[in-house]
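Record minuted for everyone:
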Amino acid sequence: MQNNLYNISYQLSGMLAGFGFTSALVLLIAYLFFLSNMRKTAASKLACCFVLLGLAGLQYCHFLYFTIDYELLSSRAYASLLVILPPSFFFFGREVLFSDVKYRWYDALHALMPLMSLFIALKYIPGYAFLFGTAYTFWFARTLLKLKDQRARYKFEFFFFAMFAVMALVALILGLALPYLDASIFFLSYSNAISIALMLVIAALLIFPELLNDIMLITELTYAKSKLAGVDTPTKIAELNDLMNIDKHYENENLNLATVADVLDLSSHQLSELINTHHQCSFPQFVRQHRVEAAKKLLLTEPDASVLSISMMTGFKSQSSFYTAFKELTGESPASFRKQENL
């Protein structure tokens, strides 16, 4: 019975490891070639390659472990991936979260961790890698705490942050407990944790495509100096409101931050700060609010119009995104809203 359970868990974990390997490569391609609205630099692209290729490599190794019983603890390749990932994640996280990252000579010290691992016996490297990972986990947690003032506006984004903090903590505990655990339990837990994390990242980006923009905005609002110095903010706010309320720019389903910023003769960062400061929300939230308000009026004034047609008239790309936004802002579905108001 116990052997059957192990066989089933190995088969499922092997499938998840294969999924994690593929997911990491898909995310890398998406980041490098399709997520054009992110702030990307040569350093962030390089760090992203290290992180996602590293995760793909780990999951490939785990797949071999679950399918052909490949001995990972005696593999120098597996050990190298374990020690490269923590500093790579640090550099990538810093590039994504903060604008205008300046590098100093002491940043090269992060390379000492992988270099020193060359002189450590293989059996000690997992514990060594996770011990160093503790420092990066604390850095991530410290960054989260400093962003607490934005928590009320970006609840989902903070859930996403917290999820990664928990996953990092779980990985840390597993790594430090490795000398006292059966190797199979460690590999099952660690591999599945990576796959689940990648699965959640993909799901979050599909459901909330503006997630990465919001995360960057959170840190900019917390750490960066105001970019609105010298800007006539009352005039720009009035112009922005006219674009939405009179010109109805929200009806354009491809409307984005850069387009509106260009119309207002502002930079994207300036417009983000302007909306956050004066409307207490992000640009995507600001547009969704106008679309939902317009949809509420149409639901009542156009009783014969279908919900799908109203979603298209108000700039939503799909009926599902319309339902999600409407329910989020009103607490009920479009059909229920129309029915209640017509009673």
